[in-house]
């Protein structure tokens, strides 16, 4: 071998070694996709921005994608109130399937309504594969009430309440109001089952879609965090997939007592017995936790 060829080989292997150091060595991390809640956006430095930064500090080299629904932060925030949720989910599925960094799979962490939206992604879009789904204050059986709204959005909430009361299950309201799409009226169970375009579909109220079951069951873990002093979610039990017993709005039932589980409509029975369902609780109001709590309880699912 001539000198120049040897040098070239050295250069190439040096380069490979360097690549090994930076791209393989540190990239044993699983990427994380996060979806913000109502009234929030991908990039608010006080919320999702700080979560992203915190995770990046705790897990060096991790790729964190904070989803923006739409083209700008303003659109992203508005879409959290007004964009058809089924369309939001397909928008996200497209984005994830086109991201080369997610090819090998990813963990997902949803905040508030972002949690049930990410569960829809898990059920509908298995490629790339979601590994762990972490629901932080999500409402897997929806809400029946909107007691308080986050931050600046209280005037929007007044209007939303009016729309929900005037007919949450009419087609127009369903298509244009995000919160109507996970509105679960236990007093009108038939209406909910028949006309809820999003939640009743992903919760298999009308038909059992075997694909949804199979996809959800392929998660490693489905972690649900409940906030014990939550003043925004009604009923709070929805954060652990529980809800009011049908036909009334006083008595609650746990996930394990409800039809979605007893009839095994979503594969949750098998997931439960395989130890894939994790129920965590923390003191504090909606989405209020400390970094220490996060590190102790959620970080292990992101490694
Ligand atoms: C590996 O991590 C680096 C940052 O540490 C990132 O730039 C690169 O895109 C990652 N590669 C893959 C394949 O995820
Ligand atoms: C079941 O879900 C898959 C994935 O979203 C979808 O392609 C299919 O059309 C659904 N089947 C039924 C019967 O709704």
UniProtKB/TrEMBL annotation:
GO terms for biological process: receptor-mediated endocytosis. This is Palmitoyl-protein thioesterase 1. The keyword Repeat does not apply. It is found in: Endoplasmic reticulum; Golgi apparatus; Lysosome; Secreted. It holds the Pfam family Palm_thioest. Its main location: endoplasmic reticulum. It comes from Sinocyclocheilus grahami (Dianchi golden-line fish). Its EC number is 3.1.2.2, 3.1.2.22. Belongs to the palmitoyl-protein thioesterase family. It catalyses: S-hexadecanoyl-N-acetylcysteine methyl ester + H2O = N-acetylcysteine methyl ester + hexadecanoate + H(+); hexadecanoyl-CoA + H2O = hexadecanoate + CoA + H(+); S-hexadecanoyl-L-cysteinyl-[protein] + H2O = L-cysteinyl-[protein] + hexadecanoate + H(+); S-hexadecanoyl-N-acetylcysteamine + H2O = N-acetylcysteamine + hexadecanoate + H(+). The keyword Transferase does not apply. The gene is LOC107589449. It comes from the Eukaryota. One of its GO terms (cellular component) is endoplasmic reticulum. Keywords: Disulfide bond, Endoplasmic reticulum, Glycoprotein, Golgi apparatus, Hydrolase, Lysosome, Secreted, Signal. One of its GO terms (molecular function) is palmitoyl-(protein) hydrolase activity. Residues 1-25 form the signal peptide.
